[in-house]
Amino acid sequence: MYLKRLELKGFKSFPTKTDILFNEGITAIVGPNGSGKSNISDAVRWVLGEQSIKSLRGEKLEDVIFAGTDTKKAMNYCEVALTIDNSDNKLDLDFNEITIKRRAYRNGESSFFLNNKSCRLKDIKEILLDTGIGKDGYSIIEQGKVDEILSNNPANRRKVFDEACGISKFRYKKQEAEKNLRNTKENLERINDIYIEIENQLKPLFIQQEKANKYLEISEKLKIIEVNSYIREIEELERELNEINKHSQLLENQLIETEKQKELAENGFNDTNKEIDDINESISKAQDYINSINSVISKKDSQINIINERIKNHKNEIERCIKEAEEIKEKIKFNNNSLKELQDSKINNEDKINSLNKDIESLNKLNLNKKEEIDSINTELENLKDDIINILNKKQEASSKLSTLTANMDNINSRTETIDLDINEINKELNQKNEHLKECNQNFDSKNINLEKVKNRYEENIVQLKELNELSENLDKNIQDNKYKLNNYNSKLTVYVEMENHNEGFNKGVKEVLKNKSLRGIHGALGQVISVSQKYEKAIESVLGAYMQNIITDDENSAKMAINYLKQNNLGRVTFLPLSIIKSNKINLNNIKSNTNCIGVASDLLSYDEKYKNILENILGRTIVIDTIDNGIKFAKETGHKYKVVTLDGEILNPGGSLTGGSFRTNANILSRKRLINEYSEKIKIKENEIKTLLSKKEEYNQKNSSLKNNIIDLELDIKNIDKDIIIQGSKINRIEDEIKVLKQNLNKLQNEKDGLKLNQNITIERTNSVKKEIDSLENNHKTNKDRILKLTTQVKESSGTYENDKVKHDSLNLELAKYNQVYENILSEINRINNENIELELKLNNTEEVLKQQQIETSKLEENIIIEQTEKLSLNKQLGDNIRNLENKKVVKESLKQKLEDTNKDVKTINRQHMDLKESLFKVQGKLDRLKATIETYTNKLFENYEMTIEEALIIKDDLIEIDKKLLESLKREIRSLGHVNIDSIKEYEEVKERYDFYSEQKQDLEQSIEAIEKLISDLEKNMKSEFKVKFKEINENFKYVYKRLFGGGYGELTILDEQNILESDIEITAQPPGKKMKNLNLLSGGEKALTAISILFSILIAKPTPFCILDEIEAPLDDANIFRFGEFLKELSKDTQFISVTHRRGTMEASDYIYGVTMQEKAISKVLSLKLNEAEEITDVI
């Protein structure tokens, strides 16, 4: 790894883009004072994150931006880019080159980039930790840094040694961990405060929410009873309202009927009036129509006269057109005859012209052939002479070509051998690259497949999470619904249990007897000792009636004692059933003759203790239960009305024939209460199990949700890491592909060159053979041409005489042809004239015939129109007669309607009187209806005011089995009042605070665990730092002893840790004793001795831990020539592991350098970098 390039733009004295390339080894940067050479080291420090502008010899950020000159404007920003060669991957980034760039603007904005991607200074520092590179490292040493190493400030010295010993990264991690620890402790402190505050809120809220829950429970009971009370009152009022509505509806129907009669009578009156108006209007219209018909008949007469006149005009035009057409046809006939004669003359003339043309053409051909023959011979003679000259020239050229081709052939063979060797080398390298590319592609594909799998798992988890959330929401809703139902069941159960415990539904006397435990022999009320299935409840309740209030006792004495108790306390009357007296009185169904199916005897349909059998068979043993009233009536008739019959709906057919039925309110739920208590208890148990199952499922969903979220986070991290690997692998593949592409291009170039050479070789061989053949051919052609010239000279003399004679005959024939052509042209002109005239005549004839045709059509249409007009006139005359008769009839109808109008008026008055009477009756009924509706509205308002419920919502909790007990209502209201102020919101507040309490408890625990983990991390880091520092410091100290002696040519140097117990914070003492001198305080050393001591420490560090590159800014300036020589020699040795860039003006340093750059100011305040040789660098430094 080494510094490859430094680019400056707008930084200090470098306004234009300056690109400085560095190589491994030692590079010296020289230049006169003030030329800007130290600005290069400042640029490196600045781009690596130097925040102190004073360290860069400025006051504020804009001082590092080019300020402008008289000839060049100031820059708005500056930019420095430092490129490091990372082909050995020493930096933990998979790039061969790493470019760190920093840009700053005059407004104070500053930004960092890593390979042209925006980043933080922190990112750059982390990458460069423990490399020695950075503003706090030892990669940039200027004179100020030398002073820092030797200064009395131990902190500055520690930074250099920490970086050299490789503990900077650990110290940075420790500082970050300590920062996290402080933040975590602060967070824990805040969490503790919140936790205590929430804990203080939780206790009173718990008491409040318990009170609120009790309030809601009682309120719910009260609500159920009171709402049912309102509903029953409303239903009773609505029944009465319905009856009055029916009466109102009857009156309304009668009123509507009267209104209809009234409307019919009024409509009849209005209709008759309208009919009279209509007949008057019709008479008026009929008269107007008769007048209009007379007017139309007059117009028709006028129209017929006009059409007759137009027909006459059209006939005159037709005669003119016929005459004109005849004249045109005669003219065309004459022209056609003239044309025939001219055509005959034309044909004769054409025959004569053709004959002359043939003769002339024949003679032309003959002369042309002779002329061509003579010209051809002359041309051939000239060509043959030229050919002889060309043949001689070509023969000379061919001989030269043969020599050149032979030389080319030798060169082609030599180059072909060289190319074959290069192609073999490239093919070997190409095979290696292809194998590497194949491995990389397989790796790339594998990573992509893995990425796709991870993404699919990620998407699956997202979908599962979404589905799980939906299920969870539905589950929450389900839990809420079930809790509402459970509360409803609990409320109803509580009501029924309390009713059972308080013996609700029983009379006062019965309640008092049952309540008094001192009375002996009391078994309970009849309704309490029996149970019946829901199917028979109505039938049994109906038939038992008041019997359910009867109390069962052991004997008459027990009954007597209870009666005395009631008398003494004035508690009312009760019927008692002594077990010792009452006997069974049950009928046998088998003895009853009936075709009607019976369900059974009522006493057999109950469940009870066997000891109560006589009592129940006495009361219900002669009651038959039948399904419907129709079957009951049938059964009663068949048995002669001897038995009591009860239907499942509670209708009773009494012995003797009387019937009891209709709607009835159940007897205080005495029978159904036990069943309902059992049913609601069972429902509550089922519902609680359902809720428990749902809550368990909810917990399962929560665990799955948490698991899925963790999976998604892990998968997102996997995707990010795989993406990063794919990008790196992709870059690697692209790099190999580019290398393969270059190799293939080189291979193609060589192959193309080889193919070209092969082609040239074949062409050269062919051309060599061709040239040899050409030379032989040229010699043969030269001899043949000489013989041919002699023969052609004789032939041209003979052909010239014949040609002249034929030319005279040709001119005579041309003159005769011209005469015949003139005559032919005249004939053609006349034919064209006649043809044109005929065309014009044809057009004129067509126009005339068209006009004629049009006139004939118009005439036909006019003749048809006159017939239509005459027909319409006849029709109108007929209509006129009909309308006159119709008018007379309408006048007769008008008189009849006047009489009808008087009769209808009398009927309207009679109906109006009836209508008024009905309206008055309806008004009275409506008043009563309004009062009932007002009462219903009062209850409805109470329902809403007390419970914010509509009637529809109230009907949901309606229960006919609930007894409306005013005492119970008052008792519940007293309980609510006794609770005092209730904070309903405390239930929700408690849940929220409890949730926050649980959350912060978890947070508190997490933070405590984090503090413990961070403290362990800091402890581990300190152990590693101590261990690392001890080993490395010892190595640097040994190096210092050696380097000090070598650079000073003797003497003694040592580094000592002052506090061995605290080596990470301890000061480091530097002992320096130059040769021949006593141990001195560092401050007493000369400037040269100080510099050489600091250089010794720097070189000791570089031996122990080489930095990739090191910039030295005139650190050797105080040294004398002898020390400069030793400095240069040592620098040469160290440059094997470290790249050095030395800003210098000392010859010894320049001589040790591998490369030299010069910095000059050819223009004021603008630096320019030049590549120099040693003697040129000396010339520049001579100026200093």
TrEMBL record:
Q: Which residues form a coiled coil?
A: 167-268, 297-485, 677-921, 990-1024
Q: Which Pfam families match?
A: SMC_hinge, SMC_N
Instruction: Please give the Gene Ontology molecular function terms for this protein.
Output: ATP binding; ATP hydrolysis activity; DNA binding
GO aspect biological process, one term: sister chromatid cohesion
InterPro entries according to UniProt: P-loop_NTPase, RecF/RecN/SMC_N, SMC, SMC_hinge, SMC_hinge_sf, SMC_prok
Q: Which residues form the SMC hinge domain?
A: 520-636
The residues forming the signal peptide are none
Per UniProt, which keywords does this protein have?
ATP-binding, Coiled coil, Cytoplasm, DNA-binding, Nucleotide-binding
Using the UniProt record, give the first listed, main subcellular location: cytoplasm
TM segment ranges: none
Binding sites annotated in the UniProt record for ATP: P32, N33, G34, S35, G36, K37, S38, N39
One GO cellular-component annotation of the UniProt record comes to:
cytoplasm
Q: What is known of its domains?
A: Contains large globular domains required for ATP hydrolysis at each terminus and a third globular domain forming a flexible hinge near the middle of the molecule. These domains are separated by coiled-coil structures.
Read off the PANTHER family from this record: STRUCTURAL MAINTENANCE OF CHROMOSOMES PROTEIN 3 (PTHR43977)
Q: Which HAMAP family match?
A: Smc_prok
Q: Whom does it interact with, and what assembly results?
A: Homodimer.
Family named by the database record: Belongs to the SMC family.
Q: What is this protein called?
A: Chromosome partition protein Smc
